[in-house]
Amino acid sequence: MLNKVPEVTIWFWVIKVLCTTVGESFADWINTQLGVGLVNTAWIFTAVLVVALAVQLRLKRYVPFPYWLTVVVVSVTGTLYTDILTDQLNVPLWISSAVFSVLLVVVFGVWWLREHTLSIHSVTTLPRESFYWLTVLVTFALGTATGDWTLELTGWSPGVSVLLPLGLIAAITALRRFGANPVLSFWLAYILTRPLGANIGDWLASPKVAQNPGDPTGLALGTFTTSLIFLGLILATVVYLTVTRTDVTETREATHTAQVTSNPHKERIALAGFGVLAVATAALLAWAHAQPHVGPAPETDTTSAVQLPPGQAVKNFPPAKVGALRTLASTSLKDARSGDATGAHAAAQSLRDLWDADQDSLQPLDDTGWTSIDAQMDKVLKTFGIDHSNPPMSPAQQESELNTLLVDLG
């Protein structure tokens, strides 16, 4: 039977990172720019995933377009599931990381007990392909949780955060060339492409404002532009692969050749190398966590200096963007009034994300109006403990600041 997974070449890893990046950016754009919300976005992509998987599983061989489309959708969906745990249910990232790690071990264990192989070179049957896509989904969720947890521990900027997964993938590649187990090497690298792609997306989309002195700033492309760029790159790569068929393999179900030519002695040495790499990474994160985390420079509260009538601050802003902000603020206020603290917090966080994403397009239109809204937005976020060290304030305080913001938004 024909293998349902492409040959693992440089093209595989390039397009894998591209898919991860566009998945992260596109999900953020839908969640914030369109005001759909995190849960609704997750439902949308879950439905799309079911359709994409149905098409992919019916195919008898590897076909580039449906395969990579499924990877994009899986990357978005897995990310959204982790985000819901973190932002909606307030599950700590270390718990999410631990849960998904255990789940991944369970999936691998069941896959091995049933099929006696975890190699993607033997994905030639429906059960094996089903295990493969379930594993991919869990790796994306795990990669999201561990990546975000790393940023939470270290306080690194998007530019710096790219270096850790990139360095780890390079080290894994070196160990693989030395003689490490190919299956273990593949799945370790596969997990790490998730935080790598997400960090690249954040770096490209983030504003040109350094989180810490000396850190590389973002490129301020925005989530929509970043998504378009990487979608174009993915499309071009998939077209190239479709025409050249350079990633097509017709491997039989037999044991992969690498297992026959492997050197057990080198595999044991490489396994020890993976252990050293894990210890070194943990030590680096512990050291970074112990360093002072310098946050953004304190903002000057200009609310008292800029007194604008209701709606005046946003008169020069596009109505659609103002409407999206009002929708999220109204949702947060409604949830706060009804006692739904989790929903109110999630809506406020989406409001923050949307406001930050629109800064580069709104501030040049009216700096005074933007500064006025930004000051009130900061007060709203403070009541929820978002981007501030204080714990969430009372619902009454949250409602008061949200009401003021809605008045300012007209």
TrEMBL record:
<keyword id="KW-1133">Transmembrane helix</keyword>
<feature type="transmembrane region" description="Helical">
    <location>
        <begin position="218"/>
        <end position="243"/>
    </location>
</feature>
<keyword id="KW-0472">Membrane</keyword>
<feature type="transmembrane region" description="Helical">
    <location>
        <begin position="34"/>
        <end position="55"/>
    </location>
</feature>
<dbReference type="InterPro" id="IPR007136">
    <property type="entry name" value="DUF347"/>
</dbReference>
<feature type="transmembrane region" description="Helical">
    <location>
        <begin position="269"/>
        <end position="288"/>
    </location>
</feature>
<feature type="transmembrane region" description="Helical">
    <location>
        <begin position="91"/>
        <end position="111"/>
    </location>
</feature>
<feature type="transmembrane region" description="Helical">
    <location>
        <begin position="156"/>
        <end position="175"/>
    </location>
</feature>
<protein>
    <recommendedName>
        <fullName>Membrane-anchored protein</fullName>
    </recommendedName>
</protein>
<feature type="transmembrane region" description="Helical">
    <location>
        <begin position="131"/>
        <end position="150"/>
    </location>
</feature>
<feature type="transmembrane region" description="Helical">
    <location>
        <begin position="187"/>
        <end position="206"/>
    </location>
</feature>
<dbReference type="Pfam" id="PF03988">
    <property type="entry name" value="DUF347"/>
</dbReference>
<keyword id="KW-0812">Transmembrane</keyword>
<feature type="transmembrane region" description="Helical">
    <location>
        <begin position="67"/>
        <end position="85"/>
    </location>
</feature>
